[in-house]
Design a protein that fits this description.
By secondary structure, this protein is mostly loops. The chain contains one helix and two strands; from the N terminus they run αββ. The chain has one domain (about 1-170): E3 ubiquitin-protein ligase SopA (Pectate Lyase C-like, 3 Solenoid).
Length: about 170
């Protein structure tokens, strides 16, 4: 794993480099960075500050985002499959059309996040704060929201037959 600071990552990204797979970015401050299409597959972003970062179309599959702060991050079309976002703060983040298959988001703060059309198959959102979230058109098959705070969630309905949440396709 290559240890890297925020300045080095941004400098290399701006020079055209995109693949930072397995980089160690523990605790870096990337607030408001423009990192569209970056590849951070398997990277360590634990406790990183990703607030307001543009990570559209980014590959964060298998990345460690435990306790990261990604409030208002732009993750449209991003791949977060099997990413570990345990106890991350992702308030009002935009996950439109993102792939969150198998993502671990247990205990995350997702208040106001938008998951429009996202793939959340098998994602673990147990014990999360989901107030104000919008799951319209999302694939929530086998998504776990056990003990989640879901007072004002949009786009999810409880299926009596399967005793699970299903996304609604209309806004």
């Amino acid at each position: 794993m290559i240890n890297m600071n925020a300045q080095e990552l941004i400098k290399r990204y701006n020079a055209g480099e995109r693949d930072f797979s397995n980089a160690d970015l523990h605790g870096v401050d990337l607030r408001e960075a423009m990192l569209r299409g970056i590849i951070l597959r398997g990277a360590n972003l634990e406790k990183a500050n990703l607030g307001w970062v543009n990570l559209e179309e980014a590959d964060l599959s298998d990345a460690n985002l435990k306790n990261a702060k990604a409030n208002a991050a732009h993750l449209r079309g991003a791949n977060l499959s099997n990413a570990d976002c345990t106890e991350a703060s992702m308030k009002t983040a935009g996950f439109k059309d993102a792939n969150l298959t198998g993502a671990k988001m247990r205990g995350a703060i997702l208040v106001g996040a938008k998951f429009l059309g996202a793939n959340l198959r098998g994602a673990n959102l147990s014990k999360t704060q989901l107030d104000g979230c919008d799951f319209t058109g999302a694939d929530t098959t086998d998504m776990d929201i056990t003990n989640a705070e879901t007072t004002t969630v949009k786009g999810l309905v409880m299926s009596r037959e399967q005793k699970s949440w299903k996304a609604v396709d209309k806004e």
